Amino acid sequence: MNQDYIKPDEWSIIEEGFDKNLVKSSESLFSIGNGAMGQRANFEETYTGPTFQGSYIAGVYYPDKTRVGWWKNGYPEYFAKVLNAPNWIGIDIEIDGVALDLNTCSQVSDYRRELNMKEGWYRRSFTATLPNEAQVKVVATRFLSLKFDEIGAIEYTVEVLNKDVNVKAIPYLDSGIKNEDSNWDDQFWNTTAVSFKDNRAFIEAHTMKTNFATCTFMMAMAQANGKQIKASESETTETKASLLFETPIEKGGRFSLTKYGGYAVARNHDKNELVDAANKVLDEVSSLGFDGLLETQKKAWAEIWQMSDITIEGDVKAQQGIRFNIFQLNQTYLGTDSRLNIGPKGFTGEKYGGSTYWDTEAYCIPFYMATKNQEVARKLLKYRYNHLEKAIENAEKLGFENGAALYPMVTMNGEECHNEWEITFEEIHRNGAIAFAIYNYFRYTGDYTYIPEMGLEVLIGIARFWYQRANFSEQKEQYVILGVTGPNEYENNVNNNWYTNYIAKWCIDYALEQLDKVEEGYPDDYERIIGKTHLTETETDRWSAVAKNMYFPFSEKLDVFLQQDGFLDKELIKVSDLPKSERPLNQKWSWDRILRSPYIKQADTLQGFYFFEDHFSTEELQKHFDFYEPFTVHESSLSPCVHSIQAAKLGRMDQAYQFYLRTSRLDLDDYNKEVEEGLHITSMAGTWMSIVEGFAGMRVIEDKLNFTPQLPEQWSSYSFKINFRNRILKVTVTKEGSSYELTGNEEMSIRVNGERVVLTPTEIVET
Fold first, then answer.
1. Which of 254, 398, 493, 622 has its CA 20 to 30 A from that of 198?
2. 393, 421 Cβ separation under 8 angstroms
3. Angle at CA 419, nearest 5°, toward 175 and 335?
4. Rounded to the nearest 5°, which phi and psi values hold at 258?
5. CA-to-CA distance for 668 and 4, rounded, in angstroms?
6. How many CB atoms lie under 10 A from the CB of residue 236?
7. Measured at the alpha carbon of residue 328, what is the angle toward residues 325 and 331, in degrees to the nearest 5?
8. CA 320, 321, 325 angle in degrees (round to 5)?
9. pLDDT reported for residue 144
10. HSE (CB half, 13 Å, CA atoms) of 195?
């Protein structure tokens, strides 16, 4: 770990004591969201110290023109910026004419932040002495409503401690904001109107180029010692709207301001009626009041936790870690809108750009299938089907034809929008993750209807791509795939990455298998799809030839598949022999040195063993794990969870536990020294997998749940719930054994350690 200031707590993230050096890290860690919008934990009041300001609206982006040293054919035309949206949380505070600013205060004490994950609110409190010696105690509580997802609420109180003062509070909206990064310093937002209605303000603005129309809005009310006061004036500029509340407060008195704010967007409303939409939601929440709205928040989160919680007894840090991950996943995506997806930073930062990576299919779908219902996962798959035509266009730009589909590595709308060539051109394994998600969805839910309705067309496009991307090697007399980057991004432009070749073969085989199933069971859909894709038997025979004769690099001496051709030519120095001062490599070494090294950023060959565990024996897994793990630096957030699952599979629970801690507390303890840039949202689903698939050993085999439960010695017990084919199963693992409780109307058969167990609803079965 690289930081250790978050206090251990089962249900909250807590920081105590003000440290300017930790402000940006805490802005990430205490971020809040509701699936439709989110924000970093920036201060409401003025702060002149280093800060990373960030508020974000789901699905809103800017196509920042690609900037590279020189242009290469096939480069995406733009890099999609996750946009810093107009700011609605701001509340400037002045005490006797001096700004409340923690960067300039002469003393800050009793400073505390709390992110209450159980109830879904964020609170900050402190006592500050200003340069004019006025001393105040501040408590600010904020949340983004799950029930009314266009709005958030702030309650900001100032208690005067040492003398009579004059307090000014200026709640404002500001659309004159910028992103932390921009390729060309373009203006991302164009403000078109700033208006007021009583104690409400509205800023209408749209994004440049993409023209996403938005209305940022607020309503503010203030009290002095419990008595309502009115705003004395309002002010507008081209990009700002503010209200002024001013009142004298005696020593020991209290000033309180309640502010509602948020975004109405044209994605959900007529672009000419955004102010009306804003007023409507303000009317709804103001009738509830802050406390009433907070109660709806607590109930909404209680419902989420009822299904998604994982309880751990005996290890507070482990408990805090898993709940933090589950909380952030639910803040980012709730499955209510198939137009949205799960960005790698969610609503916590701007790094990476885009809103959709292969992380969704490889890591997130299992979490959402098991903790929500199959409709949520189906929406994520539908998202990819809706982008199929764009995937075909992406492939055409690179010279592929006949409906071959290359799904983007990074996207907002289906187009590739990442400008690193080794990712855009070569990290083509993402196609395989999308096909695997279709397979995984059916395996888990038993819902085959997605495949004839949508999935088969996706599989055909992907199979066509792999067929064209492979070429026959006369020397090897097999098909090879050249010039790729596997999941391990510390090797670029390699030949025959084992994981890529293996998943390419599997994709073709799976597409052929589904063609036969759909033809037999869904003849109308089959005829529609064949007519649409113009697929012929001659073409599928060619696919089959490639799949049957795919080349996989292998070492007879070591009896392992090689990560890529030439891997054994590297100087094979293990990670344990690297000085800690040289880590993380991507911050200490040149890329030339990294690319020549044997070091693995994340599970690569082992990623294939995770996906296709049933294709290999436990002995084969052990050989590959023992060979590759010592060279793995885990400098990708997606790496530790796979290793945790596989270490548990091998019965190495101490190692599995250490990997679990790393994935669950990756951000809380800032393992990769980058948390101030935002959280690693998509990899958080891997934390859930580490417990459910790793420690509990959950697998779906022959349409039945199978468990091989183990317990880390640091824990007394753990428990979780699974929604499996619309039946809720609670699993509890203790030192004495495991127990299973089924909710529903039908009995269910599972296997525990290979033995069949029949579950009856409401009855707890112990093994």
1. 254
2. no
3. 60
4. -110, 130
5. 8
6. 16
7. 150
8. 115
9. 98
10. 11
Nearest alpha-carbon partner for 233 in 246, 214, 220: 246
Catalytic site includes residue 489: yes
Question: Could you tell me which of 161, 108, 159 has the C-alpha nearest to residue 131?
Answer: 108
Q: Is the pLDDT of residue 745 over 90?
A: no
State residue 112 phi and psi, 5-degree precision.
Answer: -150, 135
pTM for this model (two decimals): 0.96
Q: How many CB atoms lie within 10 A of CB 575?
A: 16
Q: For strands 704-707 and 748-752, give the pairing.
A: parallel
Angle between helices 653-664 and 316-332 (to 10 degrees): 50
C-alpha separations of 221 from 91, 232, 245 in Å: 12, 12, 9
Query: How do residues 249-284 score in pLDDT, each as one tens digit?
Result: 999 999 999 999 999 999 999 999 999 999 999 999
DSSP-derived secondary structure for 53-85: --EEETT-EEEEEP--SS--TT--SEEEEEP-P
pLDDT digits (tens, 9 = 90+) for 24-68: 999 999 999 999 999 999 999 999 999 999 999 999 999 888 877
Cα–Cα dist 37/27, whole Å: 16
Three-state DSSP state, 683: coil
The string of pLDDT tens digits covering residues 687-708 is: 999 999 999 999 999 999 999 9
Annotated active-site residue in 489, 635, 676, 741: 489
Could you tell me if 203 and 193 are in contact, meaning their C-beta atoms sit under 8 angstroms apart? yes
- What residues contact 542, with CB distance under 8 A and at least 6 apart? 467
The token pair at 298 is 């607590």
Among 506, 516, 494, residue whose Cα is nearest residue 543: 506
Three-state DSSP at 99 gives strand
Positive or negative: CA dihedral 583, 589, 595, 598:
negative
Interhelix angle 498-521/537-548, rounded to 10 degrees, is 140
Using DSSP bridges, classify how beta strands 310-313 and 717-724 pair: parallel, antiparallel or unpaired.
Answer: antiparallel
Residues 6+ apart with CB under 8 A from 615: none
Sheet strands (E) in 338-476: 471-473
Rounded to whole angstroms, the Cα distance separating 658 from 410 reads: 31
Whether the per-residue pLDDT at 337 is higher than 90: the answer is no
DSSP string, 581-616: GG-SHHHHS-HHHHHHS--BSS-SHHHHHHHTGGGS
Each residue's pLDDT tens digit, 469-518: 999 999 999 999 999 999 999 999 999 999 999 999 999 999 999 999 99
Alpha helices in 401-485, H assignment, sequence order: 421-424, 430-445, 450, 456-469
